[in-house]
Amino acid sequence: MTQGVAGDPLVDNHAKTVREPDCAKLGNDEVTTQYSQRARNEFNFEPVVLDLGQYAGRTTGACFWLCLAAGLAECAPHVLAQALPGISDAREAVAHLRAQGVRACVGGDHRRTSLGVVAETLRTRFCGGEAAVLLRDDMKARIYHAFAALDPRGPARTEQMYLRWVQKLATREYADELVVLCVALELGIRITIIPYTPPSAIGQWAVTTYGREDAEHVLHFGNNDAHYVYLSQAT
Q: Residues 23-78: pLDDT tens digits?
C-alpha cells in the first residue's frame, strides 16, 4: 500500500463489508499531530485538525462528506452555494453553518445539525438517485474504467456492480479515491489528502492531490484508514 487514502483501490475496498471505524483511535493525538506537522512542513500552514465524526443526517460512513461540507463552508461565500445548485432545502443549513463556524461542530452528533444536513445533501447530489453526479455519462466516462480495473484477480466488473457501489455510497459506503477525484473535478476544487503513516512503515506515505492544479480553492484533509478529518486554515 503506497498511501493512506480511505478505500485505497489497491486493497479493493469496494468489495468489502462496510465497517464503522474507531474514530477515537483513528483521530487520536498521535495521528492529528502527524497531520499538523506535515501541513506545516509541506504546505506551510498551521492547521486546526477537526474530527467531525462519521454521521451526517440519516447516513453513516460520512466523514469525507462532513469534511467537504466544512471545507466548502470556509471558502468564499458563493462556493458552497455553487456546490448545491438549486437545492433550496439546504440553504438555511448553509447559512447557519457559515454563521456558526465549522470549528463549533467538533464533537457533535451531526445527524440533525446544519453541518450534517449540508454533508448529506452534498452526498446525495453525488451518489443518490438517478441524477447522481457519479451516474452521469460524462463522469462515468472519466472514472468507470478505473473502477472496472480494480482487483484484476477478481471477477470482471460490470455496470451493475458500479451502480450498486454508487447506491451504497449514498448512505453507508466510505468515500474512496474515485469519489474524491469525482468531487474535485465536479466542483472545480483541489483536494489534498495527508495520510497518517504508521510507525511500522518504511517511509512516509505519499500525500495525494485531486483536481486541477490551478484550482482557486484547495481543501486539506487528513486520512487514517477509512477516516477523514478536516484541516482548517481559517483564522
A: 555 557 789 999 999 999 999 999 999 999 999 999 999 999 999 999 999 998 88
The total number of residues shown for the chain amounts to: 235
By three-state DSSP, how is residue 209 classified?
strand
Helix, strand, coil percentages, rounded to 5, for the chain: 45, 10, 40
Over residues 143-167, the mean pLDDT reads 81
Contact at 8 Å (CB) between 72 and 98?
Answer: no
Q: Which of 50, 152, 194, 160 is nearest to 108 (CA)?
A: 50
CA distance 95 to 87: 13
Q: What class, spelled out in words, does domain 9-232 have in CATH?
A: alpha beta
Residue 231 in contact with residue 34, Cβ under 8 Å?
no
The cell numbers describing 153, all together, are: 484477480
Where do the structural domains in the chain lie, given as residue ranges?
Answer: 9-232
